[in-house]
Amino acid sequence: MRAELHRAWPKESLPDRDPQTTHRQAQALWLALQLLYPKPDTALLDSLADWAEVLTPIVVPRPGEGLMLEIRGSLRYFSGLAEIRRQLVAELERRGLRARLAVAPTPLAAAWLVRCRSVEILEPSMLAGAIGSLPLAATAWPEEVQRLLGQMGLRSVADCLRLPRAGFARRVGRDWLADLDRALGRLPDWRAPRRVPQALRRSVELMFETSDRVLLAEALRGMTAAFEQELRRCQSQVAEIELRFRHLRCGATVTRMRFVEPVHESARMLGPLLARIESLRLARPAIGLTLATGRLMPLAVGQPALLPAVADDPAGAAALPEFALVECLRGRYGSHRVHGIDQVPEHRPERAWRRSIDQSSAGTGGPAAQAFERPLWLLPEPQKQGRGRSPFFQEGPDSVTDPERIESGWWDGREARRDYHVVIGAAGEKLWLYRDCQSHDWYLHGIFG
Q1: 381 Cβ contact list (under 8 Å, min separation 6)
Q2: What angle do CA 401, 405, 406 make, to 5 degrees?
Q3: Which residues does 179 contact at the CB level (< 8 Å), separation at least 6?
Q4: Are 325 and 333 in contact (CB under 8 A)?
Q5: How many whole angstroms separate alpha carbon 173 and alpha carbon 213?
Q6: Ramachandran angles phi, psi of 44, nearest 5°
Q7: Do 67 and 61 meet the contact criterion of CB atoms below 8 Å apart?
Q8: Using DSSP, how many helices (H) and how many strands (E) does the chain show?
Q9: Distance (Å, whole) CA 139 – CA 109
Q10: What's CA 105's distance to the chain center, in Å?
Q11: 97 contacts: CB under 8 Å, gap ≥ 6
């Protein structure tokens, strides 16, 4: 009888089978997770999906039911399906969740199976027998479709598979015939994984109003630890962060910080935040905290050293980068009081630098490497030393270098025509002086370290 039904199918009703599509379907393996208790909400699914991405990068939420994980690429990494299932079950037990697991080569078959039983189907050839025994309720088709199928005497998925395809499409609908084909791997069933967020945001509600810095610091530790886990998961880093203290009877207290270099580690974020809350004055006690990041950027990881660095600090503080101190100072005193120095394409030394808050752009607009030696410390204003021969000169040919001529500024009314010299002072200090080519006066402009 089944052979007669197959011969009766019209040729045009058969699905198009692309050999490459069939090969891709055969290579996939989906694990469906059905949460039984408690009933999953959006927050629970998001939290569980965050953790599940340690098993596979392809995690698809099923609103109101559970998750879908594509695990074919993870089998070799975890040495088989048993280890993946063990880690997933352990995490569910840790969270106090009851769930059911099913594995199948297609996502729709896994979703149908997990609604009824826990089962593992690893070969596509076993799909028809596995889903055929399922009741129609496992498909989650609309009630009117299931009612129509019941009136036709159909009780299971196998009953639908036995019908002529053309008649099923005409009487029930082509959409549900396509569902059967997708469940069996005859049609592709592409599932979009979760999208990477553009920014991170986390809030904590406190049990009571408080200004206790210790309690606020504990809340921040939990939020920054969650940020680090999320940033590592999506291979991202952030350059700025906003901390908001919420109050009951007045507006929120908001403070923002920008890091010297983008960060993804909890310790790098927590240090400036703790320094900030120690010096910050709150308008009223806080009832909640909100921590939000700026735009996520791709994670940039430098090349590791050939040999590990030996830290003298047994507590491990030396593992933090040098600019962590700058970030902590900015957290305590504000970015406007702690800044770097950036070069400007200008020949006049007093106008060739500017204050820099964003270290990532420092040095991008500066001039090329100088042929002459320059001091790090410039005086706020050049100090006049007199006319003629400078009193700083010592006897001997090595006390003065070849002069450096600077002629610039004729376009803005601040023309400078100077001859700069590196000289040794009476106390042995290394000084940077220039002789004005117009007035022939000598000026002390900088001191070398």
Answers
A1: none
A2: 135
A3: 108, 139, 141
A4: no
A5: 64
A6: -65, -45
A7: yes
A8: 13, 17
A9: 9
A10: 31
A11: 35, 37, 38, 48
Tokens representing residue 123 in the block? 């070969």
Beta bridge partners of 101: 33
d(CA 268, CA 240): 12
Contact at 8 Å (CB) between 106 and 183?
Answer: yes
Beta carbons of 191 and 107 less than 8 angstroms apart: yes
Q: Give the pair of three-digit tokens for residue 30.
A: 């989906």
Q: Where are the alpha helices (DSSP H) in 115-239?
A: 127-132, 143-151, 157-162, 165-171, 174-184, 213-233
> Going residue by residue through the chain (449 aa), what tens digit of pLDDT does each one get?
333 333 333 333 334 444 444 444 458 999 999 999 998 998 899 889 988 988 998 999 999 999 999 999 999 999 999 999 999 999 999 999 999 999 999 999 999 999 999 999 999 999 999 999 999 999 999 999 999 999 999 999 999 999 999 999 999 999 999 999 999 999 999 888 877 678 889 999 999 999 998 999 999 999 999 999 888 877 889 999 999 999 998 889 998 888 888 889 998 899 888 888 888 888 899 999 999 999 888 887 665 555 555 544 444 444 556 666 777 777 777 766 777 777 777 778 877 777 776 554 444 444 444 557 778 788 888 888 876 555 555 443 344 567 888 888 778 777 888 988 888 877 778 888 888 888 888 898 888 87
Strand 119-120 to 98-104 pairing: parallel
Please say whether the beta carbons of 331 and 269 come within 8 A: no
Instruction: Tell me how far apart the alpha carbons of residues 353 and 397 are, in angstroms, rounded to a whole number.
Output: 32
Residue 140 to residue 126: CA distance in whole angstroms: 22
Place of tokens 């969740």: 97
* Token digits of residue 32: 């469906």
What the chain holds in terms of domains, given with CATH numbers, is: 2-184 (3.30.70.270), 201-298 (3.30.1490.100), 372-447 (no CATH)
360 in Cβ contact with 261 (< 8 Å): yes
Contact 422, 373 (CB under 8 A): yes
